[in-house]
Design goal:
- This is MarR family transcriptional regulator.
- It comes from Janthinobacterium violaceinigrum.
- This protein has a single domain, classed as Winged helix-like DNA-binding domain superfamily/Winged helix DNA-binding domain (Arc Repressor Mutant, subunit A, Orthogonal Bundle), CATH 1.10.10.
- Helix 2 crosses helix 5.
- It is mostly helical.
- A hairpin with a 7-residue loop joins strand 1 and strand 2.
Length: 144
């Protein structure tokens, strides 16, 4: 018999993956892969332009992977690299106008999907699940 911890782990993984794939299907017309639209969304949500290495850390990818992803997004006209005013070795990443338009599309699709998927969930259950996931996220970051 499978333990509740093992069931939870499997459900968490499959749900997160299914969630991303469902949004990805809704965004197929953008002709961007999941990693690209997630990168654009992460930049847009940042209170200030992130550095390439900060962005890599937030997305959970290695720096060389981030560089090649940003190269593609620069070539597509969605992002620009700007030198940091405080450290010339650091490149900050900002969205272009085209990148902001992509983010608006991503945000609208994600908001609609979230509302659609969560509409039948009891608000108290949703709050409890959210708090649990946030606690687990903090614990995993602490143990890393």
């Amino acid at each position: 018999m499978t333990s509740i911890e093992e069931r939870f782990s499997a459900a968490l993984h499959k749900t997160a993956r299914g969630w991303r794939h469902a949004i990805d299907r809704r965004l197929k017309d953008l002709d961007l892969g999941q990693a690209s639209w997630m990168c654009i969304a992460m930049i847009a949500k940042s209170p200030q332009p992130p550095s390439q290495s900060e962005l890599a850390h937030q997305l959970g990818v290695e720096n060389p992977t981030m560089v090649s992803m940003l190269d593609r997004l620069v070539k597509s006209g969605f992002v620009q690299r700007q030198p940091s005013e405080t450290d010339r070795r650091v490149k900050l990443v900002v969205l272009t106008e085209a990148g902001m338009q992509v983010y608006d599309t991503v945000r609208k699709e994600a908001d609609g999907f979230r509302k659609e998927l969560l509409q039948g969930i009891d608000p108290d259950q949703l709050r409890a699940a959210t708090e649990l996931l946030e606690a687990l996220q903090a614990a995993t970051e602490k143990s890393a």
